[in-house]
Every structure is written in C-alpha cells, then in structure tokens.
Amino acid sequence: MSEEIEIRLSELRDAGALMEIDDLVWTPAITPGPMVKKTKEQYLQQCPPGNQLVACLGSRLVGYIGFDNPTGLASNRHVYEINIAIHPEFQHRGIGMKLMEAMKEQAKADGVRKLSLRVLSTNQAAKAFYERCSFRVQGVLPEEFWLDGRYVDDILMWCPVS
C-alpha cells in the first residue's frame, strides 16, 4: 500500500463516514439481525466520538474498530468488547491488522487486559482473521441464531492484552 494509513480516535466529523461503512459492511451474511437505520444523532449516542479507532488513507476514512466496556460494572472495566469494519473497497490491504495492533496499544494504555468479540460461525474469513490477530475461542453459543434457514453458532473470542 503506497499511501500511509493514519490511525486515530474517532471525532464528531467522522460520524457520516462511519455510518456509511456500517451500511456497507454489516450485511445479513455476517450479522444476526438487520441493521436499523439511525439518524446521525442516534448513531452518536450509541457510538460517541472517541469510542472507535479509525483508519484513514489521506482524507478518506476506510475502517474502524469500535470499543467499549461490555458492562457498566467496575469489576469488568479491564475488558473491551470490540467490533471491526473495513470499507469493502479497502479490505484485504492490511488495514484491519493495523487497526487491531493499534487497538491492542490503546487497550494497554487504558489499562485494559482483555479484548473480546463475537463472530458468527458462518463467517469463517473473519474468524481466521481474528485468529491471525491472536484471538482464541473462549466459548460457543450453539445454534444461537436462525439465519437463512439454518441454525448458526455465535462464537465468543478473546485476546489478552500484554
């Protein structure tokens, strides 16, 4: 990739581009339910600035990792639950790996010891990517979803932050 990838915390001005990526990436093939269209204000309430690391090529936002504590409990603040999305035009260019490396550094700086995520068993490409990023299966919810005429497992994965 000839152009340098900049990774930074999300800002208010990124909301439109983040919403566009969500619309393109979160399809029925990789998410257990339809994405509900949100207004920009609703999106910002759910995904406030600073709760994503974004990847930019020049002035174009091309991917993100969202992160937050899975609960509001003090005893769970050492964990970030994450989700990652790369604009389809920019997939398979190493952007996801760079975002994941930056996420681990951000987590370490924030005192977080564990990253966790969920992936459908039918999304083998994503599962393989997570495994390349040192995630491992921590549990499986068998037949958790009925999708496209079949039961699909929900795989819970985790990675220690060291």
UniProtKB/TrEMBL annotation:
InterPro entries the record matches: Acyl_CoA_acyltransferase (IPR016181), GNAT_dom (IPR000182), YpeA/RimI_acetyltransf (IPR050680)
Top-rank taxon, per record: Bacteria
Database matches in SUPFAM superfamilies: Acyl-CoA N-acyltransferases (Nat)
One Pfam family from the record: Acetyltransf_1
CDD domains, alphabetized: NAT_SF
Coiled-coil annotated residue ranges, if any: none
The N-acetyltransferase domain, residue ranges: 5-162
Keywords from the named record: Acyltransferase, Transferase
Annotated protein name in UniProt: N-acetyltransferase
